[in-house]
Amino acid sequence: MSTYFDTIKKSFADVPITDAGVDTVAFLEAAEGLVGLFDLLGSTAFGVVQSDLKGNIAKVRTRYNATPELSATLEQLVLNEKKEKKQPATEGLMWLLRGLAFTAQALQRSHGDKSEELSVSFNKSYEGTLKQFHNFVVKGVFALAMKACPYRKDFYEKLGSPPEKVDQELGVWLAALDVILKRMNTFYVNGKYGTVY
User: In the predicted model, is pLDDT for residue 141 greater than 90?
Assistant: First the structure.
């Protein structure tokens, strides 16, 4: 049997991290895999989240394509763009990382507590990640999306089978994403580019 993780182009566990930083192309491919996860939630309410993630991936990719030799890692991309008046990729990456942190923390909660419904996991994650950065209108959009979460059982069935394989692959995927998020949050804070979460 196969799982959702067998269908994605790149897992966060396969994103190279060196002293120079997080590989840009591999990271973007893994982030695109996460965007597809929202299709499994089966609600158009998450369309806003998907659209935002895709838009921010595009900003980072545009910068990479314009200066690939100076953007091999996410850190190099940000440092290179720092010299310019406008920094759309740096801001886009920050918002992409925030969206990834929101999703990762929700799934980590769900993965860690098999009795917690997705709506609770996503609500708690939202409170600890994105909510502080959103205005009243956006908070309302997210509140609607949280109410549209499928039942945990239904979502996990869509992730594939057998359940033990899904659980193991999700754990590896989330752990690798967590390493990247913590590294990039530290980079953003130390460089005074903003905070991821």
Answer: no
